[in-house]
Specification:
With 176 residues, the chain is mainly α. Helices cover 56% and strands 6% of the residues. The protein has one domain (4-175).
Length: 176
């Protein structure tokens, strides 16, 4: 179990002169300036890596990447389409589609379709971060200086199971 000492302790532990603070922040707000600085860096990296701006790629792309989509393994427009279970026509159509998506993003098209899928998934992680940072930019432009952690929770915790585990861990650590 970790604890904080000296200036890192919470205000309550400082007032009570407790040397080791076991309190942890759960739903604090994050300042938008930190995210906006990161947005500029990530956008620059994206443009360097793919040769296009993220806005251009977003307009041209038709790829579905929703990890919660029920029929993603049978949808030829989804990155997780299963080529093993598809018909030869679906596999051909999917290969052409994935090739187009890789070319839009400037991803090298060497290797197999599975390699292209993996490259697109890596690209998607960066794009998902850019979407979240764009949300922060919109909040900042509307005058909010802090972003509630709940707004970025999907990026930080990808599913309800992890959220439940996180909440249970917080309850247990609070009791201990």
């Amino acid at each position: 179990m970790s604890f904080k000492e000296l200036a890192d302790r919470c205000d309550r532990c400082k007032r009570q002169a407790v040397d080791q603070c076991y309190h942890h922040d759960v739903c604090y707000s994050i300042t938008t300036e930190k995210f906006l600085e990161e947005l500029d860096v990530v956008l620059g990296c994206y443009h360097e890596r793919h040769g296009k701006s993220y806005a251009e790629v977003r307009l041209e792309s038709k790829l579905k990447m929703d990890h919660m989509q029920v029929n993603k393994s049978s949808d030829v427009k989804h990155v997780d389409f299963s080529i093993e279970h598809g018909s030869p026509e679906q596999v051909r159509q999917y290969a052409h589609f994935i090739l187009r998506e890789c070319m839009i993003r400037g991803i090298p098209v060497t290797g197999t379709v599975t390699d292209w899928q993996a490259a697109l998934k890596c690209c998607f992680l960066l794009e998902k971060s850019l979407d979240m940072l764009d949300l922060v930019k919109q909040l900042h432009e509307s005058g909010r200086l802090n972003v509630p952690l709940v707004k970025v929770l999907e990026i930080l915790i990808p599913c309800i199971l992890h959220l439940e585990n996180w909440a249970n861990e917080k309850i247990i650590t609070s009791i201990l």
